[in-house]
């Protein structure tokens, strides 16, 4: 069982949990850019939190199902539609043989996650199904999905009708605040230049991808050059090269680098950046390591609450209507649930 990719979209990749334990060999961790959306998408269909999903950027794919399955869509709202009819985010849907999932266009955020009950049947490479396309590693043949690809799904038994309570649905804003911890090379900047980072508003440039986000704004100067002896780079590291514009390293970052890192975005806030687009604004707020741990514990506690408080429902009546409004025809689904 599985689905065929009718239209690939802009960048549709199979991404799940990161590839842990291989950076020492030069293999990037990869994995989903938006940890929260990945985990919630999987919980909605009864999967392990880090099961692989389709991560789609800006223009979502069009896929046709060959067997009955269950799906959920989270993250950025790219206008999901089932058989041409708009459907909701953050809830599960039963799809049948011949059904088509497509997307009408970006509304907010930029990365959407499509989960499939039972999971995607691709090989586990170095402990992960995630794609690192630059090395043709993992995912579907080590690359983004293309028109005509047939992707296998594991068989899913039973029916799950789940919906995420609204209080857990994040809002994707065009101006975001990222909490950061100083270091490890903050001593290569004087106090005035460190304050520039905290007081400035930066723009996300067109040079933003799964490897890193280059920002533009007031330049940050080093005390004595930008170069260091190359060391490890974490997800969210903020490098400052010689030109003075910060670069935030993302999921497909290189494993080591030789530019000074002034700070690191805390992991809980990385989903905001994953959903940000060129032209969006970024502010930084400093927290210490102890506060970051408290924030992380609260985040994991929220995931635990979602697991235990996920709303379930039963569709007891479903009808499809055609509506003509001002000469334009619309299809709509009306469901009675309990």
TrEMBL record:
Hydrolase recorded as keyword: yes
Give the Carboxyltransferase domain ranges: 24-302
Q: Which InterPro entries does this chain map to?
A: CT_A_B (IPR003778), Cyclophilin-like_dom_sf (IPR029000), PxpC (IPR052708)
Q: Which residues cross the membrane?
A: none
Q: Which Pfam families match?
A: CT_A_B (PF02626)
Task: Identify the keywords attached in UniProt to this record, alphabetized.
Answer: ATP-binding, Hydrolase, Nucleotide-binding
Please tell me whether the keyword Transmembrane helix is annotated for this protein. no
Q: What is the name listed in the Swiss-Prot or TrEMBL entry for this protein?
A: Biotin-dependent carboxylase-like uncharacterized protein
Q: Which organism is it from?
A: Paraclostridium ghonii
């Amino acid at each position: 069982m599985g689905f065929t990719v009718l239209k690939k979209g802009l960048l549709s990749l199979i991404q799940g949990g990161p590839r842990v334990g291989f950076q020492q060999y030069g293999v990037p961790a990869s994995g989903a850019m938006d940890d929260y959306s990945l985990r919630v998408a999987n919980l909605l269909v009864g999967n392990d939190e880090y099961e692989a999903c389709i991560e789609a950027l800006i223009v979502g794919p069009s896929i046709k199902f060959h067997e009955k399955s269950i799906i959920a869509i989270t993250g950025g709202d790219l206008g999901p539609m089932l058989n041409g009819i708009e459907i909701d985010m953050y809830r599960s849907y039963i799809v049948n043989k011949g059904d088509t999932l497509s997307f009408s266009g970006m509304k907010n955020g930029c990365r959407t996650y499509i989960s499939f009950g039972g999971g995607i049947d691709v090989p586990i490479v170095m402990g992960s199904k995630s794609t690192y396309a630059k090395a043709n590693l993992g995912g579907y043949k080590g690359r983004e999905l293309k028109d005509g690809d047939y992707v296998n799904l594991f068989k899913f038994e039973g029916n799950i009708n789940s919906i995420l309570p609204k209080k857990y649905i994040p809002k994707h804003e065009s101006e975001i605040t990222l909490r950061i911890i100083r270091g490890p090379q903050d001593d290569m900047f004087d106090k005035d230049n460190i304050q520039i980072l905290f007081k400035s508003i930066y723009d996300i440039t067109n040079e933003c991808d799964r490897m890193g986000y280059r920002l533009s704004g007031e330049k940050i100067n080093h005390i004595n050059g930008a170069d260091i002896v190359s060391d490890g780079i974490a997800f969210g590291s903020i490098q400052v090269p010689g030109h003075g514009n910060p670069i935030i390293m993302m999921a497909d970052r290189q494993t080591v680098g030789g530019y000074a890192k002034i700070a690191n975005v805390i992991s809980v806030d990385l989903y905001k950046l994953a959903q940000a687009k060129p032209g969006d604004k970024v502010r930084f707020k400093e927290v210490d390591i102890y506060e970051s741990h408290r924030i992380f514990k609260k985040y994991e506690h929220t995931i635990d609450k979602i697991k235990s408080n996920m709303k379930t429902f039963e569709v007891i009546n479903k009808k499809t209507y055609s509506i003509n409004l001002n000469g334009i025809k619309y299809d709509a689904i009306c469901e009675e649930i309990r």
